[in-house]
């Protein structure tokens, strides 16, 4: 049966446009933030308040019923039956492959619950959750938690190679390591004086080589003790960034991020090849999973895409298109207290307005309302006089507009 599925999928792949090394598998009406597989055919994708599962390599995706959750950020399958997922104010688990999910805690507006961003389990019972000033460990499958519970960081992703040694990355160049199972975390300085880039995801190969996704490429060969800045991505829009990175071997890896950016390396991260994905919806690629050097999935804004051939090995300049003309980046840090930075890019001169709204859509302040020339801009917003909660910020430039969410936590 699996052979028939593979033949069908290969046929569908090669009937796409002749230069399409990546194909679109699925188009939900919302964003997806993470995608993980337990084998060649069985995987899960999550984002917003949705979880999907495939058992045929992504040919079909079926939504799974689960407790209500505001924003599911990451999913982690331990095996075909036991899967965990975390997000803002929620943590849930299934023991039957997703037929039934149960929530250990969840809430749509916070209610004092932690804002969780990442998780990693080394077996069915032992795992770690990280997020906004929190890192906690369970040894009984999520029933209870021990150790740090609070760390001075906004952690985004976490990885443990055994019960004692783990690492996590986060905003403002934050990278921490533990050698006692998470009882204490020690910061390791990666960045030299200069911009503090946010680290959203990390990739580990053979429990020793670690890469961090950001604007530059950072690599460690000793599980995070020492670091080198080895290269930069060939961005075509100033101010773009990488959100997710995944290596299938010591040499081959993939990275994805803003403005349709999706890149491949075959030399361990020193050089990156842009992938042709401009036939898909504009916007973020957030999730990345490389089953091997050739079979890879990425998810993001209203899509799951896949390659069976390892994507493009070189770039054809006559076919490669630049990203969208105007762009609004996600604020950083996010969540924040009390100040955050908003970046936007203008392809040409225009009348620009940047407005902050509360969760009900009421305008509370205008940050920009003037004509500006082409270029990249940053503006800070201080929420000291506002209450904790979700806020919206909207960029308008002539006929272009884009809105994003941000979270103020005091």
What's the overall geometry? globular
User: Looking across the biggest beta sheet, what order are the strands in?
Assistant: 1-27-26-25
Cα distance spanning the termini: 54 Å
Poorly predicted regions:
1-19, 315-324
Percentage of residues assigned to helices: under 10%
Q: C-alpha Rg, in Å?
A: 21 Å
Topology:
Blueprint: H1 2-14, E1 23-26, E2 34-37, E3 43-47, E4 50-54, E5 62-63, E6 71-77, E7 83-88, E8 90-94, E9 102-106, E10 116-121, E11 127-131, E12 134-138, E13 155-160, E14 166-170, E15 175-178, E16 186-187, E17 202-205, E18 209-212, E19 216-220, E20 228-232, E21 242-247, E22 253-257, E23 262-265, E24 273-274, E25 285-290, E26 296-300, E27 303-307, E28 327-328, E29 339-346, E30 350-358, E31 363-372, E32 375-382, E33 389-397, E34 400-408
Antiparallel strand pairs: 1-27, 2-3, 3-4, 4-5, 6-7, 7-8, 8-9, 10-11, 11-12, 13-14, 14-15, 15-16, 17-18, 18-19, 19-20, 21-22, 22-23, 23-24, 25-26, 26-27, 28-29, 29-32, 30-31, 30-33, 33-34
